[in-house]
Amino acid sequence: MLLGSVEAGGTKFVCAVGNEDYRILDITNFPTTTPEETLKKTVDYFKQFKDLQAISVSSFGPIELRQNSPKFGYITDTPKVGWSNTDFVGRLKQDFDLPIHWTTDVNGSAYGEYIMATLFNEKINSLVYYTIGTGVGAGAIVNGNFIGDIGHPEMGHVRLKRHPDDLDFKGICPYHGDCLEGLVSGPTFKARLGKSGKDVPLTDHVWDIMAFYVAQAALQVTLMLRPAKIVFGGGVVSEAFLKKVRSQFTELMNDYVDVGDIDKYIVMPLVKNNGSATVGNFALALKEFNK
Amino acid sequence: MLLGSVEAGGTKFVCAVGNEDYRILDITNFPTTTPEETLKKTVDYFKQFKDLQAISVSSFGPIELRQNSPKFGYITDTPKVGWSNTDFVGRLKQDFDLPIHWTTDVNGSAYGEYIMATLFNEKINSLVYYTIGTGVGAGAIVNGNFIGDIGHPEMGHVRLKRHPDDLDFKGICPYHGDCLEGLVSGPTFKARLGKSGKDVPLTDHVWDIMAFYVAQAALQVTLMLRPAKIVFGGGVVSEAFLKKVRSQFTELMNDYVDVGDIDKYIVMPLVKNNGSATVGNFALALKEFNK
């Protein structure tokens, strides 16, 4: 059985074909240019696979997820130049008479991690996936369903208690200044220290400051959703960084609610190399096919 | 059809009997003393009603909500003296062979507001209810189900960006200091100003400071859950205060996600006099009966 995955990012698209065991049979990627050109490349890629049964798209946003909206399947009012009001699912439907699943990039990753956890025999019914990279976002699942009602979550834009050693930094979010994304996304290294994150050793105090903020995000989502597991992916995250996050989380929580073993609660992705969304897409395409 | 409601608060219990139209036919209340005495009074109250079909309890916490836990139906590790490890549902089951619904006080209120909104013909599938009184807590519903997986939410204990004019106030939460509850619960008036909240006019700047924090809570829950409506109840809340909250929310959000008409999004309860939980209990008792 052949299933299609589109991970539609603001910088590049990753298209893949896999099977119902979530194995990648073929994969490609290309830069995100205009909607016309990029979606044409997407369609042309999948046309090579005659027996494709369903496609799942995990897209950058904001997107319209409400099935009853006339704009369902669209990228809506995005800052990405040229992409506002793009009928993504409609374009795929022009060439493919197939079930198409449509969700956010982070929901796709969350679903991939949720499915993988099940395959690894973890007994969980819920999971939150944060990505901390160029931007910050999160997707959440409870009992196989995505969290969100009148729209998808935008968990990257919450406000946080500021770290006492970081009060002079205004944050870089063009909308909110010092929201989570404005304080911990990849480009904050340049803004704070004038160099790229990969050149900042883990001994630099900035990592403690960032861990304080990321721990608060984990605390917020714990107190609001009570998920079984929180996964952190994206270029900024490493096991060493998460160690700091766990420590600050424990201090902030002060034994108020029990999350079980903290080392199993706040974790790196099970799927390596940012591949969570591709696994998630295969599983979501299969789910859409079986509807 | 007779349905029973128990609103189990840390200070008093409100017991009521109503019908499937959510009308109160009889209501009483008594102070929360020892578990033995208070639960005996609860049982004795309901014994007067021979035709009772189901009971719903909305309780102070923390409580065990997981059906598969041996402690389901218990108040667990509560700071309320004498009440830790109390088998609430078990005590009721000793005297009543009836379906018993069990949830948190704020979930009960959230459900009451959700049901009332439906009766008022609002087209919503989700709702969050915050209470701001002696403590701060919240319950959330999506498609008729409560949010929470490994436990119930504890939304009162999130951290927030501190208001620049409030940096010296350490907050009063014994666990977290300056979490939401530590910054905006009723007793903060005494701690900040040395007098009770009812003696602090709305022109006092402390209300702006508190609105800044409550607006952040609304912002967090908006960005995490994307609910259709946020209701604020409890002794600290007034329409005039919510006006300040809406204004700060709008500023903090900066048009990032659309919540519709803000005056219909951040609102006071539809059920007056803190009666939301009683309505919620009638509806939940009916739901439990129909299971």
From TrEMBL, chains A, B:
Protein name per its UniProtKB record: Fructokinase
Stated EC number for the protein is 2.7.1.4
PANTHER family given for it? FRUCTOKINASE, TRANSCRIPTIONAL REPRESSOR MPRA
Q: Which cofactor does it need?
A: Mg(2+)
> Which transformation does this protein catalyse, written as a reaction?
D-fructose + ATP = D-fructose 6-phosphate + ADP + H(+)
Q: What is its EC class? A: transferase
Q: Matching InterPro entries, A to Z?
A: ATPase_NBD, Carb_Metab_Reg_Kinase/Isom, ROK, ScrK
Write out the similarity annotation: Belongs to the ROK (NagC/XylR) family.
